[in-house]
Amino acid sequence: MLGNKVSRQKPCHHCKSRSAAAPPDTSTIHYEKFWLYRHCSSVQQGDRQAQKAGQLFSGLLAMNVVFLGCAFISSMIFNHIAITLAEVWILLSILKVLCLCWIVYYLLGTSRQPHAVLHRDSHAGPIWIRGSVLLFGSCSVLLNSFQIGYSTILIQCKSKVDILFPSIDILFICTQALFLWHHSKDCIQVQHNLTRCGLMLTIATNLLLWLLAVTNDTIHMEIESQLREVEQRFAGKALFSPLCNETTSCTCPNTTICKVFQKGYILLYPFNTEYCLVCCSVLYVMWKNVGRRISHHHSSPIKAKFKLQGVVFGPLLGAVAVIIGICVFMLYQIQATGSVPNRQVFVMYYSYYIVLLPLMSVGAVVGTIIHALEKRELDTLKNPTRSLDVILLMGAALGQIGMCYFSIVALVATDPVDLLNSLILSHSVLLIFQTITQNVFIIDGLHRQHTSSSKEEELKEQQIREGYDQRRVSMIELGQEIRKVSLSYIHTYSNLTWKRRALREISFFLVLCNIILWVMPTFGAHPAFENGLEKSFYGYSTWFVIVNFGLPLGVFYRMHSVGGLLEIYVTA
């Protein structure tokens, strides 16, 4: 009776061998059941405990670094005399040097050890996210180059830290981009704790760089707005202003190269915030994959290829939306950035959004309904990349949704009947609805399993191509094979293709729409601050904080939505 209980426990292989060699004594069986079985099964439990302990310790390290950096940056904002920007730069430079040391050690030491990378996560680090790292990293390097050139010209009123900090930043950006491009898919199997701590330290450093970029962007936009007000007041009243004398004490000389540095710095500044956010997402996936073992049948999935076939209306409508959006953006940049912004340009800008957002919402709702009609099973396999995609979509959407609610409260409390106010109010409501419907569509699509018929079609197409290469196959057999595949394709097309085609049309249209909605705020269209309505309601400083925390998250949301929609398009 007791022996039957022991056999049902299914001990490990070593336990079976030892129990087979032991005499069938009751005391011996009792001893193996309560001590040796626990000893054999404790290997996996200890593995999980060590993994949780390493994740906990590295998470605590990152939390303390972030809190320390936030304390420095907050002290600089509220008491810039005690804590200066140069001291914050020194702290971040130390963190960058530590991250550089660990990245170099990983590239030259950890990753080259025997059995270091036995598995690679095929879902992690897709080409579009790595391309974004290279694109935003290149723009950030160019941004720092402009900052170095600008500080060099104004060396009489700039410190050496103004040149040293962007120089270290260029080295950090290039090394990190190289690291993420080659090793974003790694599931490292050695030096777990050191790798987790290094990844978390790098994540914390990027978060602090993003936070500093947001606060610097706030200060930059505040100075620009104050200079505009001073210019208007000086042109209208011709009075001397102490603020004007203070802000123009260290201005750019009237030279061409200096103007290029200044305009280039202002234009490329938003890319730095996006680079930090993208790097944090990739590094987090790497941190989750440390010590992860992937089964053989999930390690090499069939990769779907991007094909622009069978879609017409999605690319056509999306191209129209992009062209109109570029025209609206150019007119906005010309008129709204002048000394006296034109009211009509804000009406044009918000009218474009009011027309586009409902179309995007309808497309997302129809796509969600098609997902339900397909009745494809949900993919419940553990996937850290997909989980992170969902978290990033929901978290980044909170930025622009929160900003929209602040606008709604301000506009309803003031004068919602006014034309411009009613347009901004409608824009805020439609943006909230569009964001929610698009999130539901993307998240539902990411959790759907790939259809088996599409894989069968690809295999049959591959068989036909191989048949062309095999000269021994007769033309009669080849013709029969082509007819069989053609009949199968017609049968599949008549039964299933209309749903897939609709999904591809919708996802491609949403991809182009999200691209233009990403381009417009990224390259300087900030009507939420420049229209002055919410700023007059909440106050200058409060609305600056709301805009500069919500706007970068909104830009990141559009960029991340493009990746999710492309995956839905490819797998449809």
Give a verbal description of the structure.
This protein is 79% helix and 1% strand. It contains 19 helices and two strands. Helix 4 runs antiparallel to helix 7 and helix 11 runs parallel beside helix 16. It is globular, with a radius of gyration of 29 Å. The relative contact order is 0.09. This is OTOP3 protein. It is a multi-pass membrane protein. GO terms for molecular function: proton channel activity. It is found in: Cell membrane.
Strand order of the largest sheet: 1-2
SSE order in H/E notation? Answer: HHHHEHHEHHHHHHHHHHHHH
| Count of helical stretches | 19
**Shape category:** globular
* Beta strands, count: 2
The poorly predicted ranges are 1-11, 13-41, 237-248, 297-302, 452-458
Q: What do the pLDDT scores average to?
A: 76
Instruction: Determine Rg (CA atoms, Å).
Output: 29 Å
Strand fraction: under 5%
- Note the gap between the termini: 56 Å
Label the structural class. mainly alpha
Biggest sheet character = 2 strands, antiparallel
Number of domains: 2
Which range best describes the helical content: under 10%, 10-25%, 25-40%, 40-55%, 55-70% or over 70%? over 70%
